[in-house]
Specification:
- With 179 residues, the protein is of the alpha+beta class.
- The protein folds into two domains: 78 residues, no CATH class; 60 residues, SH3 type barrels, CATH 2.30.30.60.
- Helices cover 37% and strands 28% of the residues.
- Strands 4-3-2-1-5-6 form a six-stranded antiparallel sheet, with no helix packed on it. Strands 7-8 form a two-stranded antiparallel ribbon.
- Helix 1 packs parallel to helix 3.
- The two termini are 36 Å apart.
Length: 179
């Protein structure tokens, strides 16, 4: 049976991890974002470029250094990803969560497995102490790691139906279900 301090520690770690996940990008791409679009009826290959316009029915993607742009109907889009700069804050939160979890496990194990009757604290409090000591260290490491870039998939809805022509000129009908 878990003690109240262990339960509160587990809850704190879960909240730290969910806060890091909540720092996701906005659901709608903005002009100037670098996007990667999968639209098989428009192009057999993924379309990667800078979003120049985002209307209710179509997205316009431009390529660096080229005057031409590609118009992609939203109904033809199977997958839309945006390249985002990862956040140092997110790295710090993930690091703090990992540090807290590692400290809690190490602190609990040290007090519970030691078998020594001379321990001053019960295992639950040792777990909290270990988490409090290692969480800032994990946060500092997570903050120090360069964030880099990553692709974030944007939700297009659970059911999508589309019709169009492929790049070869044949007609197609598409039904996408996401679970």
């Amino acid at each position: 049976m878990a003690t109240p301090t262990v339960r509160s520690l587990v809850l704190s770690v879960a909240l730290l991890c969910s806060a890091a996940t909540a720092l996701a990008a906005s659901p709608e791409p903005q002009p100037g974002d670098v996007v990667r679009i999968l639209a098989p009826t428009v192009s057999a290959l993924p379309i990667v470029g800078t979003l120049t316009a985002a209307g209710p029915s179509a997205l316009t993607v431009g390529w660096q250094g080229l005057p031409d742009s590609q118009l992609v109907p939203r109904a033809a889009v199977d997958r839309l990803e945006v390249r985002r700069q990862r956040s140092r804050l997110r790295g710090a939160l993930i690091g703090a969560g990992i540090g807290a979890l590692a400290g809690a496990v190490a602190g609990y194990a040290d007090c519970a497995i030691g078998g020594d009757d001379t321990r001053l604290l019960p295992p639950g409090r040792c777990a909290v102490f270990g988490a409090v000591v290692l969480a800032p260290l994990g946060a500092a490491i997570g903050l120090a790691v360069p964030p880099g870039h990553g692709w974030s998939e944007l939700d297009l809805g659970s059911v999508r139906v589309g019709a169009g022509t492929t790049s070869g000129g044949s007609r197609s009908v598409r039904l996408s279900l996401r679970f």
